[in-house]
């Protein structure tokens, strides 16, 4: 069975990066992770994605990324462009950045099915609206949070109000020279009282 990994750039106050490198999205501070990027960080992120992966994206993240990654240079762009993008959308006919497949409105059933076929990891990046659904249905195997040393005060939070209580087991921590702390967790199940 395929693993599903959530990977997010997040501020100290829980705001996630929205958009593609160079801007995009609706954050008041634009591309706020840019000052903390480094060659070591890029290599680490490439390693987190792995050699063989597909992506699970919400429509908004897909649209933002499709305006950047198809023409971007480098190994990250090559891997993202080659990966199949499974997109939660009501308009699959308008998808263009491929390879892609629309997964329709029943996200939990579609993701359960995706986990049983194919190989490689399914990676969710951005697309925070999917996070609660995936956690609610026990579909997340691993979460990697790249915590940037910045407070944003406002913006889209990784975990929306109403996200179900879940427990995770720490699986690793790595500090990068620019101040980013990479925390990896494995899913342990519903939070026990």
Describe this structure as you would to a colleague.
The chain is α/β, with parallel strands linked by helices and 193 residues long. It is built from 5 helices and 8 strands. The protein has an 8-stranded mixed β-sheet with strand order 4-3-2-5-1-6-8-7. The chain is globular. The model has no long low-confidence stretch (mean pLDDT 87).
Strand order of the largest sheet: 4-3-2-5-1-6-8-7
List the secondary-structure elements in sequence, H or E: EHEHHEEHEHEEE
Low-confidence stretches are: none
Question: Strand portion, in percent?
Answer: 25-35%
Give the rounded overall mean pLDDT.
Answer: 87
Write the SSE topology.
Elements: E1 4-11, H1 39-49, E2 53-58, H2 59-66, H3 75-82, E3 85-88, E4 100-102, H4 107-116, E5 121-125, H5 128-136, E6 142-148, E7 166-175, E8 181-190
Parallel strand pairs: 1-5, 1-6, 2-3, 2-5, 3-4
Antiparallel strand pairs: 6-8, 7-8
